[in-house]
Amino acid sequence: MRMQVIFGILLIFTQASMEPTTTADNSTQSHDGLLFQDPVVCRFNESSQCYVALGQRLHLQMPLEDGFELKITDKTSTTHLILKYRKHQSNPPKPNHPRWQFIKDYKTMILTSAERSDSGTYTLETFDANGNTKGSYTLQLNIEAMVSSVKVWYSCLCAEVTKVQCSADGDNLRFIWIANLSTLTQLGNAHSTFLLDKNHQGNINCNVENHVSRDRRTIELHPCSDQEDL
């Protein structure tokens, strides 16, 4: 097991699975929620990445061009045509995907409820009034589950060492521990752990976040006694 001393107090390690232990019940939780308001608005000419929470609404704004074709290349490397638009069309075109809507007046594609299958690389080719190619844009759309079910607890390994653990649900989680005004960041699938020596008492904050949301929980540590040695 690899360990690292942080500010002379924290001994850090990360593990993939949760070990059985006694759960402390003196923790408090704060909900920060989504990082972006609903709906999320993404544009092809602003950024190459777009993050949307699972189930959230997305507004994808198109450039003001005479024509465009919108395609998606999914995680299986399969490319699908979503919409073909030409300004001279008498009737607004309908997207090939039933969950997408196209608002012609605002040149906006609307996804009412994002699903994991919507993740992929979106390519937009634009055309002038004569059908000549003007440009091409690429946008990576990432759908992530929100951070939820954050739990934090601790156990005494011996009178000298306390093990603190934090778990959460969600995608691409990042755990940020705050103790004694020191901050430590760990990446993990669902679980993060660190060790404290006997000099540490007081509150420990476990902040969990990903690209679309964040949540946190605080627990108060009490000294370990010799009777609690494992």
Automatic annotation (TrEMBL):
The keyword Signal applies. It comes from the Eukaryota. Residues 1-18 form the signal peptide. Gene3D superfamilies: Immunoglobulins (2.60.40.10). Keywords: Signal. Residues 161-220 form the Ig-like domain. The keyword Transcription does not apply. InterPro entries: Ig-like_dom (IPR007110), Ig-like_dom_sf (IPR036179), Ig-like_fold (IPR013783). PROSITE patterns: IG_LIKE (PS50835). This is Ig-like domain-containing protein. It comes from Ameiurus melas.
